[in-house]
Design a protein that fits this description.
single chain, alpha/beta
Length: about 130
């Protein structure tokens, strides 16, 4: 692991929350059913999300804002984007930051090894760190 990744991992540990900090019923349910038991196993979490929401509603992309913009025509309100390796280096982190702060992204979840975003208009704008 490089110095950037070590530093970000430490900061992530200090900032992360648990289910007691979640106010959204949708996110509370998602956290307890999917994220809590698989947050350190990105591939298992993605497979679990695909089982729950359907393969067509889970899209994996690299941590790239350009890729995020390119797939906007495929995204529905049910889509969950899985951003792979957002803390690989400073550049991928900045790309993940742009995706998380894009006006179209309403909910973002930072799991360190994986980022999740949703553009579901029924949800309030929120950023979670687990």
């Amino acid at each position: 692991m490089n110095i950037f990744k070590h530093k970000q991992k430490l900061l992530h540990i200090l900032k992360r929350k648990d289910e007691h900090s979640i106010h959204s019923p949708y996110m509370f349910d998602l956290y307890n059913k999917q994220i809590k038991k698989n947050r350190k196993k990105p591939n298992k979490l993605i497979a679990s999300l695909e089982n729950e929401f359907g393969n067509e509603n889970i899209i994996k992309i690299p941590s790239s804002y350009i890729e995020f913009q390119n797939i906007q025509t495929k995204i529905t309100e049910k889509t969950i984007l899985c951003i792979e390796n957002p803390y690989q280096n400073k550049d991928t982190y900045m790309e993940f930051y742009k995706i998380s702060n894009d006006p179209r992204t309403l909910v973002s979840v930072d799991l360190f090894f994986l980022g999740l975003t949703s553009q579901n208009k029924d949800l309030s704008r929120q950023h979670y760190i687990f």
